[in-house]
Write the C-alpha coordinates for this entry.
Amino acid sequence: MKPLLIVKVGQTLDAIARERGDFETWFVDGLGVDPAQVRVADVRRGDALPNPTRLGAVLVTGSAAMVTDRAPWSVRTASWLQGALAVELPLLGVCYGHQLLADALGGLVGPNPRGREIGTVEVRRAPAAGKDPLLSVLPERFQVQNTHVEAVLRLPAGAVRLAASDQDENHAFRVGERAWCVQFHPEMDAAIIRRYIQARADALRAEGLDPDALSRSAQDTPHGRTLLRRFASLAGYGP
Protein backbone atom coordinates (compact mmCIF):
# COMPACT_ATOMS: atom_id res chain seq x y z
CA MET A 1 0.00 0.00 0.00
CA LYS A 2 1.22 3.50 -0.77
CA PRO A 3 2.35 5.46 2.30
CA LEU A 4 0.49 8.26 4.04
CA LEU A 5 2.70 11.34 4.11
CA ILE A 6 2.68 13.72 7.08
CA VAL A 7 4.00 17.08 5.90
CA LYS A 8 5.46 18.57 9.05
CA VAL A 9 5.42 22.37 9.02
CA GLY A 10 5.97 22.99 12.73
CA GLN A 11 6.76 21.41 16.07
CA THR A 12 5.28 21.39 19.53
CA LEU A 13 6.76 23.02 22.62
CA ASP A 14 9.98 21.37 23.76
CA ALA A 15 8.58 20.42 27.16
CA ILE A 16 5.59 18.70 25.58
CA ALA A 17 7.75 16.91 23.02
CA ARG A 18 9.89 15.41 25.76
CA GLU A 19 6.83 13.95 27.47
CA ARG A 20 4.37 13.25 24.65
CA GLY A 21 6.32 13.26 21.40
CA ASP A 22 5.74 15.64 18.51
CA PHE A 23 2.92 16.31 16.04
CA GLU A 24 3.55 13.23 13.91
CA THR A 25 3.23 10.96 16.95
CA TRP A 26 -0.13 12.47 17.88
CA PHE A 27 -1.44 12.18 14.34
CA VAL A 28 -0.39 8.56 13.90
CA ASP A 29 -2.13 7.72 17.16
CA GLY A 30 -5.27 9.65 16.22
CA LEU A 31 -5.47 8.20 12.73
CA GLY A 32 -5.09 4.68 14.08
CA VAL A 33 -2.79 3.67 11.24
CA ASP A 34 0.22 1.36 11.27
CA PRO A 35 3.30 3.58 11.80
CA ALA A 36 5.04 1.56 9.10
CA GLN A 37 2.57 3.02 6.59
CA VAL A 38 3.51 6.61 7.47
CA ARG A 39 6.29 8.82 6.13
CA VAL A 40 7.19 12.23 7.56
CA ALA A 41 8.64 15.13 5.56
CA ASP A 42 9.84 18.07 7.67
CA VAL A 43 9.78 20.76 5.01
CA ARG A 44 11.28 23.39 7.32
CA ARG A 45 14.46 21.31 7.36
CA GLY A 46 14.51 20.87 3.61
CA ASP A 47 13.03 17.36 3.37
CA ALA A 48 12.02 16.50 -0.17
CA LEU A 49 8.35 16.10 -1.03
CA PRO A 50 7.74 12.99 -3.17
CA ASN A 51 5.75 12.74 -6.36
CA PRO A 52 2.12 12.75 -5.16
CA THR A 53 1.34 9.74 -7.35
CA ARG A 54 3.59 7.65 -5.07
CA LEU A 55 1.45 8.43 -2.02
CA GLY A 56 -1.84 7.13 -0.68
CA ALA A 57 -2.77 10.29 1.24
CA VAL A 58 -1.25 13.43 2.75
CA LEU A 59 -1.78 15.31 5.98
CA VAL A 60 -0.34 18.78 6.65
CA THR A 61 0.26 19.69 10.31
CA GLY A 62 -0.06 22.90 12.23
CA SER A 63 2.73 25.34 13.02
CA ALA A 64 3.56 28.37 15.12
CA ALA A 65 4.70 30.03 11.88
CA MET A 66 2.43 32.37 9.92
CA VAL A 67 1.33 31.58 6.38
CA THR A 68 1.46 35.30 5.56
CA ASP A 69 5.22 35.34 6.23
CA ARG A 70 5.62 33.26 3.04
CA ALA A 71 8.79 31.48 4.16
CA PRO A 72 10.54 29.68 1.27
CA TRP A 73 9.67 26.24 2.67
CA SER A 74 6.04 27.29 2.94
CA VAL A 75 5.86 28.58 -0.63
CA ARG A 76 7.46 25.35 -1.86
CA THR A 77 4.95 23.27 0.06
CA ALA A 78 2.01 25.31 -1.24
CA SER A 79 3.10 24.64 -4.81
CA TRP A 80 3.45 20.92 -4.09
CA LEU A 81 -0.03 20.79 -2.56
CA GLN A 82 -1.50 22.12 -5.79
CA GLY A 83 0.07 19.12 -7.53
CA ALA A 84 -1.39 16.78 -4.92
CA LEU A 85 -4.83 18.23 -5.57
CA ALA A 86 -4.39 17.80 -9.30
CA VAL A 87 -4.07 14.02 -8.88
CA GLU A 88 -6.95 13.95 -6.35
CA LEU A 89 -4.79 12.67 -3.51
CA PRO A 90 -6.78 12.38 -0.25
CA LEU A 91 -5.63 15.37 1.77
CA LEU A 92 -6.21 16.79 5.24
CA GLY A 93 -4.84 20.22 6.16
CA VAL A 94 -4.81 21.10 9.87
CA CYS A 95 -4.43 24.64 11.25
CA TYR A 96 -1.41 25.95 9.29
CA GLY A 97 -2.16 23.30 6.67
CA HIS A 98 -5.75 24.57 6.47
CA GLN A 99 -4.58 28.13 5.94
CA LEU A 100 -1.78 27.16 3.56
CA LEU A 101 -4.07 25.35 1.16
CA ALA A 102 -6.59 28.19 1.23
CA ASP A 103 -3.84 30.68 0.44
CA ALA A 104 -2.37 28.49 -2.31
CA LEU A 105 -5.75 28.32 -4.05
CA GLY A 106 -6.44 32.05 -3.99
CA GLY A 107 -8.22 32.44 -0.65
CA LEU A 108 -7.32 35.13 1.85
CA VAL A 109 -5.38 34.40 5.05
CA GLY A 110 -4.51 36.98 7.70
CA PRO A 111 -4.76 37.93 11.37
CA ASN A 112 -8.19 37.02 12.66
CA PRO A 113 -10.03 40.32 13.27
CA ARG A 114 -11.94 38.57 16.07
CA GLY A 115 -8.72 37.77 17.87
CA ARG A 116 -6.87 34.69 19.00
CA GLU A 117 -8.84 31.49 19.43
CA ILE A 118 -7.42 29.07 21.98
CA GLY A 119 -8.73 26.31 24.23
CA THR A 120 -11.61 23.88 23.86
CA VAL A 121 -13.94 25.59 21.40
CA GLU A 122 -17.41 24.76 20.11
CA VAL A 123 -17.59 24.38 16.33
CA ARG A 124 -20.83 24.19 14.34
CA ARG A 125 -21.29 22.23 11.15
CA ALA A 126 -22.49 24.16 8.12
CA PRO A 127 -25.47 22.75 6.18
CA ALA A 128 -23.17 21.29 3.51
CA ALA A 129 -21.40 19.18 6.14
CA GLY A 130 -24.46 16.99 6.56
CA LYS A 131 -23.64 15.20 3.31
CA ASP A 132 -19.87 15.57 3.47
CA PRO A 133 -17.99 12.25 3.62
CA LEU A 134 -15.70 13.50 6.40
CA LEU A 135 -17.51 16.12 8.50
CA SER A 136 -20.84 14.25 8.51
CA VAL A 137 -19.46 11.87 11.16
CA LEU A 138 -19.41 14.75 13.67
CA PRO A 139 -22.42 16.17 15.56
CA GLU A 140 -23.98 19.41 14.39
CA ARG A 141 -22.20 21.08 17.32
CA PHE A 142 -18.95 19.66 18.62
CA GLN A 143 -16.05 20.71 20.80
CA VAL A 144 -12.41 20.46 19.75
CA GLN A 145 -9.04 21.97 20.66
CA ASN A 146 -7.93 25.21 19.03
CA THR A 147 -4.96 27.54 19.01
CA HIS A 148 -4.49 30.07 16.22
CA VAL A 149 -4.00 33.77 15.55
CA GLU A 150 -4.35 33.87 11.76
CA ALA A 151 -7.41 32.52 9.98
CA VAL A 152 -8.89 31.92 6.55
CA LEU A 153 -10.70 35.21 5.97
CA ARG A 154 -12.00 34.29 2.51
CA LEU A 155 -12.36 30.81 1.08
CA PRO A 156 -10.87 29.95 -2.32
CA ALA A 157 -13.25 29.97 -5.26
CA GLY A 158 -15.21 26.73 -5.42
CA ALA A 159 -14.45 25.68 -1.83
CA VAL A 160 -17.34 24.33 0.24
CA ARG A 161 -17.66 25.77 3.75
CA LEU A 162 -18.20 22.97 6.26
CA ALA A 163 -17.95 24.47 9.75
CA ALA A 164 -17.71 27.69 11.77
CA SER A 165 -17.06 28.87 15.32
CA ASP A 166 -17.98 32.15 17.00
CA GLN A 167 -14.58 33.58 16.10
CA ASP A 168 -13.95 31.90 12.75
CA GLU A 169 -16.59 31.46 10.08
CA ASN A 170 -14.30 29.35 7.89
CA HIS A 171 -13.34 26.69 10.40
CA ALA A 172 -13.46 23.85 7.88
CA PHE A 173 -13.85 23.52 4.14
CA ARG A 174 -13.53 21.03 1.30
CA VAL A 175 -11.94 21.47 -2.11
CA GLY A 176 -13.01 19.00 -4.76
CA GLU A 177 -14.07 15.60 -3.47
CA ARG A 178 -11.05 14.42 -1.47
CA ALA A 179 -9.31 17.43 0.12
CA TRP A 180 -10.42 18.75 3.52
CA CYS A 181 -9.05 21.51 5.72
CA VAL A 182 -9.82 22.18 9.39
CA GLN A 183 -8.64 25.05 11.57
CA PHE A 184 -9.02 23.07 14.78
CA HIS A 185 -6.52 20.51 16.09
CA PRO A 186 -8.00 16.99 15.98
CA GLU A 187 -4.67 15.59 17.20
CA MET A 188 -4.61 17.50 20.50
CA ASP A 189 -6.20 16.60 23.83
CA ALA A 190 -7.10 18.81 26.79
CA ALA A 191 -3.77 18.26 28.57
CA ILE A 192 -1.86 19.49 25.53
CA ILE A 193 -4.03 22.55 24.97
CA ARG A 194 -3.65 23.48 28.65
CA ARG A 195 0.12 23.45 28.18
CA TYR A 196 -0.25 25.81 25.21
CA ILE A 197 -2.47 28.11 27.25
CA GLN A 198 0.08 28.16 30.07
CA ALA A 199 2.95 28.85 27.66
CA ARG A 200 1.07 31.78 26.14
CA ALA A 201 -0.38 33.11 29.40
CA ASP A 202 1.34 36.51 29.24
CA ALA A 203 0.27 37.11 25.64
CA LEU A 204 -3.28 36.01 26.46
CA ARG A 205 -3.53 38.44 29.37
CA ALA A 206 -2.20 41.24 27.16
CA GLU A 207 -5.00 40.46 24.71
CA GLY A 208 -7.64 40.60 27.43
CA LEU A 209 -8.08 36.84 27.78
CA ASP A 210 -8.04 34.84 31.02
CA PRO A 211 -5.60 31.92 30.76
CA ASP A 212 -6.78 30.42 34.06
CA ALA A 213 -10.39 30.33 32.91
CA LEU A 214 -9.36 28.92 29.53
CA SER A 215 -7.38 26.16 31.26
CA ARG A 216 -10.29 25.29 33.54
CA SER A 217 -12.70 25.07 30.63
CA ALA A 218 -10.45 22.80 28.53
CA GLN A 219 -11.88 19.31 28.25
CA ASP A 220 -11.25 16.11 26.36
CA THR A 221 -13.67 15.29 23.57
CA PRO A 222 -13.87 12.35 21.15
CA HIS A 223 -14.49 14.41 18.05
CA GLY A 224 -10.93 15.03 16.90
CA ARG A 225 -10.10 11.35 16.92
CA THR A 226 -13.39 10.55 15.22
CA LEU A 227 -12.50 12.88 12.38
CA LEU A 228 -8.97 11.49 12.03
CA ARG A 229 -10.18 7.89 12.00
CA ARG A 230 -12.76 8.79 9.37
CA PHE A 231 -10.12 10.43 7.19
CA ALA A 232 -7.91 7.34 7.49
CA SER A 233 -10.86 5.20 6.42
CA LEU A 234 -11.72 7.42 3.45
CA ALA A 235 -8.07 7.30 2.36
CA GLY A 236 -8.06 3.50 2.51
CA TYR A 237 -6.06 2.99 5.73
CA GLY A 238 -8.84 1.89 8.04
CA PRO A 239 -12.14 0.03 8.25
About this structure: The domain at 4-234 is CATH 3.40.50.880 (Rossmann fold).
